[in-house]
Amino acid sequence: VQLQASGGGLVQAGGSLRLACVVSGITVSRGAYAWYRQAPGRQRELVAGITHGGITNYLDSVKGRFTISKDNAQNSVLLQMNNLKPEDTALYFCQYKTTWGRGTQVTVSS
């Protein structure tokens, strides 16, 4: 299994970004996936997860702003991020079991 994340960038506070994690080697609908993030000097934290059956969970600070979903047509896992805040600035990673994609940088300016 390989994961390829993209979609990061620089955005002003209040803006939106959509991250995509293209999955190869497995059909995305069959697995559980997660997005993590790591800011400089901080531990990596779970941002959002989605189970095989589509049940989702979120970090408290992103509830109501971020949405994780699967795109079966593109075999990818998406993270829609709205109303971004400077504290969302971090390197974002997608994860499947013990496999991690390369991070994509999200920077939110105030």
Q: What do these coordinates show?
A:
With 110 residues, the chain is mainly beta. The protein is 0% helix and 54% strand. It has strands at 2-6, 9-12, 17-24, 33-38, 45-50, 56-58, 66-71, 76-81, 90-96, 99-100, 104-109. Strands 2, 4, 5, 6, 9, 10 and 11 form a 7-stranded mixed sheet that branches. Strands 1-3-8-7 form a 4-stranded antiparallel sheet, with no helix packed on it. It is globular, with a radius of gyration of 13 Å. The model has no long low-confidence stretch (mean pLDDT 97).
List strands and helices in order, with pairings.
Blueprint: E1 2-6, E2 9-12, E3 17-24, E4 33-38, E5 45-50, E6 56-58, E7 66-71, E8 76-81, E9 90-96, E10 99-100, E11 104-109
Parallel strand pairs: 2-11
Antiparallel strand pairs: 1-3, 3-8, 4-5, 4-9, 5-6, 7-8, 9-10, 9-11
In short:
By secondary structure, the protein is mainly β. The protein has strands at 2-6, 9-12, 17-24, 33-38, 45-50, 56-58, 66-71, 76-81, 90-96, 99-100, 104-109.
Shape: globular
> Given the helix and strand composition, which structural class is it?
mainly beta
Give the radius of gyration.
Answer: 13 Å
User: What about the largest sheet?
Assistant: 7 strands, mixed
Fraction in helix: under 10%
Number of helices: 0
Tell me the series of helices and strands, N- to C-terminal. Answer: EEEEEEEEEEE
Q: What is the terminal separation in angstroms?
A: 37 Å
Instruction: Tell me the fraction of residues in β-strands, as a range.
Output: over 45%
Low-confidence stretches: none
**Number of separate strands:** 11
Summed over residues and divided by their number, the pLDDT gives a mean of 97
